[in-house]
Amino acid sequence: MRSAATTSSLLCTSHITGLVLAGGRGTRMGGVDKGLQLLHGKPLVQHVLERLAPQVGTLAINANRSQLEYARFGYPVWHDLEEGFPGPLAGLHSGLVHCTTDFLASTPCDSPLIPYDMVARLATALAEAKADAAVALTDGAHGRQRHPVCSLLRRSTQASLQAFLAAGERKMDHWFATLACVEVEFPDERAFCNINTGLELQRLEEEQ
User: Fold this and answer.
1) Which residues are annotated as a binding site for Mg(2+)?
2) What is the pLDDT of residue 94?
3) Which domain holds residue 17?
4) Which residues are annotated as a binding site?
5) Beta strands of the chain (E only): which ranges?
6) Which pLDDT does position 198 carry in this prediction?
7) Residue span of the signal peptide, if any (predicted)?
8) Rounded distance between C-alpha atoms, residue 152 and residue 119, angstroms
9) Is 94 helix (H, G, I), strand (E, B) or coil?
10) Is 159 exposed, middle or buried (0-12, 13-18, 19+ CB in 10 A)?
């Protein structure tokens, strides 16, 4: 059984790198860079960075375009190691390759309401289950939903992910199914909302 000292060490933010995934095409938003779209006068990615920063020891952004704009937030910008916008798993792979901490916490750039305790709760569950990964789960109006992009991974999963991508696989749920993974339920479904379209962005602006 994992000792209290080991669990406490895991929860130390200095052992965790935070990664904001902003490497997509933004297809459903007309091809614009979603992370740079404004919500209440601030880019979506800035909302995410401000919520994630207190939860981790260091931060980075995964982006495949607009690198100069993302670099202005003051964090390293890591692009996918594969060409052609292969999806969020490629962003996670880049994060696992580049990070120097034992753990990588990820969240998408279009989820501006992520919980302030997300990483701590994922870390606690991962340690208690001796798992390789912990993912967020919600059970609300849209039923039970896993949010694998909001996850905490051991850096040691890098080799598994690299082999998965090399085999031509791209689906996040399929890769997480190969890991010792624990689900962590969060009470607020809305905290994990994704802004995929201009209409969704407008609605969130009006609601808050």
Assistant:
1) 110
2) 96
3) 4-207
4) 21-23, 34, 62, 80, 110
5) 16-22, 38-39, 42-43, 58-63, 77-78, 103-108, 133-140, 143-154, 181-186
6) 79
7) none
8) 7
9) helix
10) exposed
Q: How many domains does the chain have?
A: 1
**Bridge partner residues of 62 (DSSP):** 21, 78
Question: Which DSSP string corresponds to 179-193?
Answer: S-EEEEEES-GGGG-
Residue 5: partners with Cβ closer than 8 Å, 6 or more residues away: none
CA-to-CA separations, 71 to 66, 75, 126, 192, in angstroms, rounded: 9, 6, 31, 25
C-alpha triplet 188, 35, 195: angle, nearest 5° = 40
- Whether 165 and 82 have beta carbons less than 8 Å apart is answered as yes
- Report the CATH number that the domain containing residue 36 is assigned in CATH: 3.90.550.10
pTM over 0.70: yes
Q: How is residue 188 written in tokens?
A: 């607020």
Consecutive 10-residue runs of the chain (208 residues): their mean pLDDT?
A: 41 89 67 87 96 97 94 96 83 96 96 96 95 95 89 97 94 95 95 86 79
Residue owning tokens 């982006």: 63
Report which secondary-structure segment, H or E, holds 207.
helix 198-207
Instruction: Dig out the tokens for 63 from the structure.
Output: 């982006």
The b-or-e profile of 109-143 (16+ CB within 10 A means b, else e) is bbbbbbbeebbbbbbbbbbebebbbbbbbbeeeee
Binding site membership for GTP: which residues? 21-23, 34, 62, 80, 110
The per-residue pLDDT for 28 is: 59
